[in-house]
Amino acid sequence: MTTAELHFLLDGRDVRLTNVSPTTTLLNWLREDAGRCGTKEGCAEGDCGACTVVLAEVRDGQLNWRSVNACIQFLPTLHGKALFTVESLRAADGRLHPAQAAMVSCHGSQCGFCTPGFVMSLFGLYQTEAAPDDGAVTDALSGNLCRCTGYRPIKSAAHEMYRLPVPSGSLPAPQWLPGDAAAQALFERLSALDADDRTLDIVHAGGRFTAPRSVDAFADCVAAHPGATILAGSTDVGLWVTKQFRTLPHLIYLGRVRELDRISETDGWLEIAAAVTLEDAFRAILQHYPEFSELWRRFASRPIRNAGTLCGNIANGSPIGDSMPALIAVGAEVVLRGGRQRRTLALEALYLGYQKKALAPGEFVHSVRIPLPGQARDRQLVRAWKISKRQDQDISAVFAGFCLQLEHGTVREARLAFGGMAATPKRASHAEAALTGRPFDAAALNDARAALAQDFQPLSDMRASATYRMEVARNLLTRLQLELAGAATRIDSMEADHDRP
Ligand SMILES: Cc1cc2nc3c(=O)[nH]c(=O)nc-3n(C[C@H](O)[C@H](O)[C@H](O)COP(=O)(O)OP(=O)(O)OC[C@H]3O[C@@H](n4cnc5c(N)ncnc54)[C@H](O)[C@@H]3O)c2cc1C
Ligand code: FES
Ligand code: FES
Fold first, then answer.
1. What residues does CATH 3.30.43.10 cover in the chain?
2. Is 147 in the pocket of ligand 3 (CB under 6 A)?
3. Which long-range contacts (CB under 8 A, 24 or more apart) does 39-43 make?
């Protein structure tokens, strides 16, 4: 069963659209068709946050709120969701939402371009977190650029909004305040939309958009249309349209496939399926690998992580993508599916060359499997380091993911993976060999540093020169050795504990 009618909620009202061009961005629709010009266009590439809006949907039996960038979301991906824009916040009697009132009282409102986006990021935070600390506030605002350096009053507003009265009326209360009638009403309406199992199939002169609901239907569709573009969070694909003006004749969207929005732990593996957002995926991974917290915090911004998927990062396979070196280091695998067939590959084996992957036509990344550290955890040294010009919202010049298995001071196994050093994310096999079976002392470090020249011949580009990249990669090995030396005493004593009968 299919439907060609796009159906979502805007401020609780039904929006039903037919004949929508699949690559119309949500931002363009808001500004040009819906007359909602409070949502601004700054960069049209997910960088500045001027276009931030908030979505609500039903997931796992509850309302789920998230901020996203309207400039790179295609309109049909809203099917079954509820949309809130900056115009949604003020009550009918003119009272401001706490996110708006706090911006006024803290003098956080500076220019009209960025302010609506800041307010919506604050609203997204308000809806999801009851008492965010300063780190959580910074993270919530990490996707909003202000060039007049006005962050201090905006951060004050983020804390101040919780001291103001909770709004009452038609806007649903935040999820940390259960029992609200408007939130319950929204939940029921979204649940009814979610129960619609029909495939959304829009055929338009501007292209086709197909959004199946089951993984089998999705797999069949991808197999039947191997030339189509798989669409996940559209944080890469969106830019192909807004920046490269590419036409995409057929998009097959995986965001409505329930079975692909799953995180599971079985038989020593954490499995994250294709529709799981980066934000949810990182939260699950950090439970087992807290060493990846810097990777998470510095990966794009909150709205990008709320939309983009981990499997999209892996499938896109950019040589400067951040998740892959870290996941390769800890021994992750990808599950590929073509029609009804599945196969599993070591993640590093997915990458054959620049933009060349071991994906057969009609095949897609079903999930990524990450080994749980288990018993060996206390003998394992895991690190992931991102080197970029800016701290936040920047693309890596070099990314390193390291995992050492240690036994009595000797490196039993070394997995060293880098991004930014080759045409693909890649292991440094010569440097790994230089460390394996030896204590990680100064001599081993020197050999591993030298061996990197056999592993990589990096490029110079606008992010870094080849010389800089190689030097940084070597220095990250030195940092690893220094951290190991610091951790050595702890590991020695744990090994002693292990060896005790
Ligand atoms: C402002 C901004 C900042 C960013 N910062 C970072 C950063 O710090 N680090 C970083 O690594 N990346 C960054 N990115 C890139 C992007 O966010 C990630 O690559 C993201 O994980 C892509 O996931 P997606 O779900 O949005 O993929 P999409 O854009 O939907 O798809 C990306 C590609 O993968 C394919 N694809 C998606 N899912 C599958 C699947 N399951 N099977 C097969 N093919 C599939 C698509 O066809 C497409 O070719 C940034 C992007 C933006 C716009
Ligand atoms: S317009 Fe800049 S993030 Fe959307
Ligand atoms: S608020 Fe727009 S530049 Fe600072």
1. 198-253
2. yes
3. 39/70, 39/85, 39/86, 39/116, 39/117, 39/120, 40/112, 40/113, 40/114, 40/116, 40/117, 41/71, 42/113, 42/114, 42/117, 42/145, 43/71
